[in-house]
Write a structure and sequence with these properties.
single chain; alpha+beta; 3 domains; 6-stranded mixed β-sheet; 4-stranded antiparallel β-sheet; 37% helix; elongated
Length: 439
């Protein structure tokens, strides 16, 4: 005999039963209404974390103005606290995606450490997602469709109903006489998912009745395949994750040589894994920028521009620069008391280790042609010294230079490449960290 819906759900929830709190994304529709009722029913016979609901009001249609009151009524009848969050949906090419982004931004605001947010997507939604992404030419990761769980803010997002069909949820709702909202936009076939749901899948299932189950199973196979690709990527990235000559530079980077030893496909797989937390990636037809960067001559400084930043190459190393890296002021900064550290606007902190120079100092940035006195070597061109150090070109424009009057007095010590003048201490620069917005 097939297990009941509550029994199967309880088994699915087992990994999350020690969470501090459970939240339910409650739209008031069929899926989330059934999920809320199930969890409240299970909580009466099982020791579960405290349950609350959150309703996100997008304000995209007049009918939606009545939904918070409906959700409040349902939650009151079940004894569940409800939080209503109103969001602004940014206009864009895809209204569906913009609404989803706004919704998940709201969910992230309520998540405490270790807490779980449950959403009500079911097997039919999974089949639609797979088909939608297949038609857009997605790769293995995209065809894995919606994961059963993933990180969200400080906690986890969990989809506990993926094993159930919409018809099973409808049967449960009718059995328990549940009332839910029917979103008028769900029948608008101008939206791609609705077109698949109402026009394509009914035709497919008429010929192949088990199509939705099989599509969902394919998504599971793709998720497993993606897991193997991730394991392979981690193996390749471990070889490339060699220490940089500039450990103080807080930017993700990899050694290029170990990547070159791999096939093009394995290179792309490793880079996708590495870059996914950092930026949106191009499709498989737009990787020419990577090959140009990889194959450039050693003295070149090629750049691969991506959606949320840039991949730079310096010598035999690649560096990720988020878009915010360039967001700092080149304006001179006065340093009246060099005994104390100096915060540079958008560019980290500067300090002297040991004796600081006397007088009022000014921080400026490179214009070209700078010369500095190096103990034992006399006056040296700064550009040549930087070339000797191997400092990546994208850092040089941010390098703070200490002047007293018109004299270039000090440059941050770069891994001991050269010493400062003996009449003052070493100048140290701690660039902006990833926690401060570089990642």
């Amino acid at each position: 005999m097939k297990p009941t819906l509550p029994a199967t759900l309880l088994h699915t929830l087992a990994p999350w039963r020690n969470a501090p709190a459970w939240h339910i994304a409650f739209s008031g529709g069929l899926d989330s209404t059934v999920l809320l009722h199930l969890l409240v029913s299970l909580a009466k016979i099982e020791n579960l974390p405290p349950v609350s609901a959150v309703h996100v009001h997008h304000g995209l249609q007049v009918a939606a103005d009545a939904w918070p009151a409906h959700c409040q009524s349902v939650c009151d009848s079940l004894g569940v606290p409800l939080r209503v969050m109103r969001v602004q949906v940014r206009p864009g090419a895809s209204l569906e995606r913009a609404a989803r982004d706004a919704r998940y931004q709201a969910f992230m605001q309520i998540m405490g450490a270790g807490e779980v947010l449950f959403t009500g997507q079911h097997r039919d939604d999974q089949a639609e997602t797979l088909l939608f992404r297949l038609l857009r030419g997605a790769g293995v990761r995209g065809l894995a469709a919606m994961p059963e769980h993933r990180p969200l803010a400080q906690g986890r997002l969990v989809r506990p109903l993926l094993a159930f069909s919409r018809s099973e949820l409808e049967a449960y709702a009718h059995q328990h006489q549940l009332q839910w909202i029917e979103d008028p936009s769900n029948v608008d076939s101008r939206f791609s998912r609705n077109y698949l749901r109402h026009r394509v899948l009914p035709t497919v299932t008429e010929r192949w009745p088990q199509a939705i189950t099989h599509l969902a199973r394919t998504a599971e196979h793709m998720a497993e395949a993606q897991g193997l690709l991730d394991e392979l990527a981690l193996m390749d990235l471990q070889r490339a994750d060699q220490p940089s000559a500039f450990p103080w530079l807080p930017l993700p980077s990899l050694a290029l040589a170990p990547l070159r030893e791999r096939s093009d496909a394995r290179q792309r797989n490793a880079l996708r894994h590495w870059l996914t937390p950092l930026t949106r990636l191009p499709d498989s037809d737009h990787w020419a920028g990577w090959y140009a960067l990889r194959d450039a001559k050693n003295d070149a400084q090629p750049v691969w521009r991506l959606a949320d930043g840039q991949l730079h190459r310096s010598g035999e190393r690649i560096w990720w620069l988020p878009s915010s890296w360039s967001e700092f002021s080149h304006a001179p900064v006065s340093w009246p008391d060099a005994q104390n550290p100096l915060e540079l606007p958008g560019n980290g902190q500067l300090r002297f280790a040991g004796k600081a120079p006397s007088g009022v100092l000014v921080i400026r940035y490179r214009q070209g042609g700078e010369v500095i006195e190096v103990p034992g070597r006399g006056h040296r061109d700064l550009k040549r010294l930087l070339n000797e150090s191997g400092l990546p070109g994208f850092v040089r424009g941010r390098l703070p230079l200490v002047y007293r009057g018109e004299q270039l007095l000090a440059v941050p010590t770069l891994a001991g490449s050269w010493a400062s003048s003996m009449d003052h201490g070493q100048l140290h620069w701690l660039p902006q960290t990833c926690d401060q917005g570089l990642s």
